[in-house]
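[retry 2/3] Putative acetyltransferase: previous attempt timed out, resubmitting with same input.
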Amino acid sequence: MLNDKTSPKKPMIITEAKPEHYNQIASFLNENNQIHRHLDWLGTLDWLGYQPYLLMIKDKKINAVLCATPENDKSAWVRTFAAKKNLPIEETWQKLLDKAISKLEENGINQLAALALHSWFEGLLSISGFKHRQNIVVLEWGGKLPSEVPINPDIEIRPMNLADLPEVHTLDKIAFQPLWQNSLAGLTKAYEQPGISTVAVCQGTIIGYQISTTMTIYGHLSRLAVNPEYQRSGIASALVYDLLRQFVQQGFWQVTVNTQSDNSASLKLYDTFGFEKTGEEIPVYKLDL
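[retry 2/3] Putative acetyltransferase: success.
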């Protein structure tokens, strides 16, 4: 006789990701799922061991992932959201998001942000209370150096070295608002990429820095910061001029940089060097907790 009793469906459970989930998460991310990945120096798997990093599991299999780990003690980014295509995406997102927000609030985080890199993800952000605050704009250099950039003779620009990173990190924290700060781990990862990294030094103290990456014939200015006490004194211009000069010498003819659409000082600086908007923009959404 056939048993007409059906076993109850096992519910989805939400659990914190741990280092032992590494292989399972790696496999899941390589499947044909809906995936949002933040533009981050650290990959999704690099954040294992930090929270909130949540897994939605059924029958011991991952069905969705949400990583929203903080960059500092005030703000966090949605670093990864991935879900199987057969899941109700809005419900899955909201359940994971609610758990993540609860964890962030416990730790005193007051802002969660995300880059809307896909229309489907932008839709999720909008329905869950995130607000569109600004855009990231992409600029490209025209390839022509200014004839001359005044440089303060008291300022030395030299290559960055590994021992500089703690001081660079301290500078980064005072140069940027919390949401746009980089962790020491993130700056270290950026520094380790192929490229050109330099610091501006005054009387033995690092007062500015830039980190750039390179690939074949392309260069990208990834990070530029100046101590607020030394801003509007030509330090940023000197760092950019020195960088572009090195790019020219090494044969990199296409150089890009990203900045915020409402950062007028940054836009003015890059305009001085002949950078122009490419038309590519990435919406930035924020949620106050």
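[retry 2/3] Putative acetyltransferase: The chain has a mean pLDDT of 94.
[retry 2/3] clearing retry counter.
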